[in-house]
Amino acid sequence: MKLLTLNCHSWQEEQQLEKLDILAKTITEREYDVIALQEVSQLADAPQEGGYKKGHFGLELLKRLSALDRTEDQMHWSFCHYGYDVYEEGVALISRLPVTEKDSFFITKSEDPDHWKTRAVPRITVNAGDQLIDFYSCHLGWWSDEEELYTEQVDRLLKRQHPDRLSFYMGDFNNHAGLKEEGYDLLLTKGLKDTYTLAATKDSGTTVFGEIAGWEGNAQPLRIDYIFASESVKVKSSRVIFNGEHYPVVSDHFGVEVELKIKLF
Q1: pLDDT in tens for each of the 265 residues of the chain?
Q2: From CA 65, how far away is CA 59, in angstroms rounded?
Q3: Among 24, 47, 85, 112, which one is most buried in terms of CB atoms within 10 A?
Q4: pTM (whole model) above 0.85
């Protein structure tokens, strides 16, 4: 099984359509089974199209995947809040494996889409052959936020975990693995297993260089995008992608791809 997570920074990138094409071609070439995307946006005043709004970033990605003969992909998107006054921003999951359940829930106290800190999480359950597996696409807040406490966001997230299913929490967790006794360590104390540390082969894991939105003034390489598992799993490899060395840069975040020793069908 191959997984990908990427904060898309959608519709905020220069040469956005070219980068969208790169993303679609890479997904097809790398044969990811489940993909978690964050900052997946659509124009608030756009007309409806196929259950979303015309120009929805995820919908445009699905069109490109279909044109590349990946016609089995399904998307589940959760709307979080309005961004830049014109966008409806959310998080999404795309799966080429059969989806048996879908859910969406808030992990912040706020459920107001006019508040930029409002965050929701989509979940899908997929049929992976001999087992059902849950996947969550996550875009959490910051450790220092006193309004929407990180500890409470994590608690609301993990409260939804099915006790009898393997679960993967994929996304932008906005907490650097190199900072001790903060968000990353909290996630580990809650029982999550970082597939990066479990991987037989891995690289630096860096997913952000320098200053980006939400990390103003940052001057160090950060590992803030992760794929966590609810239990220990066998991981062949964890690799950063879309970093200019392993495929072109397509966002202000790099992606993370993980290959697991989970047999499908």
Answers
A1: 999 999 999 999 999 999 999 999 999 999 999 999 999 999 999 999 989 999 999 999 999 999 999 999 999 999 999 998 899 999 999 999 999 999 999 999 999 999 999 999 999 999 998 899 999 999 999 999 999 999 999 999 999 999 999 999 999 999 999 999 999 999 999 999 999 999 999 999 999 988 888 888 887 899 999 999 999 999 999 999 999 999 999 999 999 999 999 988 6
A2: 10
A3: 24
A4: yes
Tokens of 51: 């259950």
Are 192 and 167 in contact by the 8 Å Cβ rule? The answer is no
Ramachandran sector of residue 243 (left: φ over 0; alpha: ψ -120 to 50; beta: rest): alpha
Q: Which residues of 171-180 are buried (b: 16+ CB within 10 A; e: fewer)?
A: bbbbbbbeee
Please give the structure tokens belonging to residue 65: 């995947």
Distance CA 214, CA 31 (A): 31
Question: Which among 111, 109, 126, 153 has a CA at the least distance from the CA of 3?
Answer: 126
Containing H/E element for 24?
helix 16-30
* Domains of the chain listed by start with CATH number: 2-260 (3.60.10.10)
Q: Tell me how far apart the alpha carbons of residues 142 and 172 are, in angstroms, rounded to a whole number.
A: 11
CB atoms within 10 A of CB 110: 16
